[in-house]
UniProtKB/TrEMBL annotation:
One of its GO terms (molecular function) is glycosyltransferase activity. Keywords: Glycosyltransferase, Transferase. Its EC number is 2.4.1.-. It comes from the Bacteria. Residues 186-341 form the Glycosyl transferase family domain. This is Alpha-1,6-mannosyltransferase. It is an enzyme of class 2 (transferase). PANTHER family: SULFOQUINOVOSYL TRANSFERASE SQD2. Transmembrane segments: none annotated. One of its GO terms (biological process) is carbohydrate derivative biosynthetic process.
Amino acid sequence: MKIVQLANLYSPVSGGLRTAVNMLGQGYAAAGHERTLVIPGRAYTRSVTAAGTVVTVPGPSVAPGYRIVLDPGPVLRVLSRVRPDVIEVSDKATLTVTARWARRHGARAVLLSHERLDAILSPRVPGWVPLDAMADRWNRRLAGMFDAIVTPSRFAAAEFARVGARSVHRVPLGVDLATFRPMDRERDDTVRLVHLGRLSKEKNPWLALHTARELRARGLDVRLDVIGDGPERRRLHRAATALGLPVTFHGHVPGRIQVARLLAAADVALATCPVEAFGLAVLEAMACGTPVVAADTGAAGELLAPRAGIVAPACPAGFADGVQALLRVPEPVRRAAARARAERYPWERAVTRMLEVLAGP
């Protein structure tokens, strides 16, 4: 097949979306398919890599490190040159017009839904806005445009079930089990916590800070590593300093092996986002042998298993209880359980399932 992947907000700092698009695309190329990736950039560029062709089209910056295609014209011209059999769209906004192009030219169009629309909009619109009705109208439109919709979790699929969408497929994503693996780590009386994710309001990173504070109030010697960047970083750093909390803000860590080392060094990872559509960071932590406390809403809890992790109310006391519950499990047992759970999600399985959806009935 000729497969074109289209993605907005794809950048070196875009975390889960970038990882998913890259790993799936590499899998498509390894399986013998012709893969082209189209993403926003400063200007038009084209390069050939071992995993296929990468094309950037002009897109303005909408946040530090993030760009979005506002004019779909250059994307449509790329599609006309490549003439794909199928397009995979990782966007619910400006790139969705490509589904019409696909229909006119006999190609299959598949939407890869990385986030729930209501979850994206909730922190950005006033409370009086009828958010569910707005999201439902847009999702009905999407369901009518695309031949298939792929969601990574039951939680993510719920917004499409709510509008009666057909041809919705649940394809859990994967984890790089070679890069993210258990490693030698220091062992002392310090409880090492880690939070990996974008430091933005909807991800609720403040919960990690307040969980560390709660555990210290309970008498535990706690240290917190925060991996990632975002608009809340400065405020979080100021708060941690004011509270005297031992928190290290690593910012965006570009090397995956460096991220893996930080995850493997922790006793427990904190997945604070209450509207997570999947939870790649959860899988990466568990692959490193680090169990996870996850918010009891969203999709992260779908990835957990006994002794590998626990869901908890998204409040400091709830997360602190979860951390202490995991610490009561003998370390070799909880670390082995976390790794075993992650091993159920190899990228090869996700690629195989996605190729089935892309090929169609």
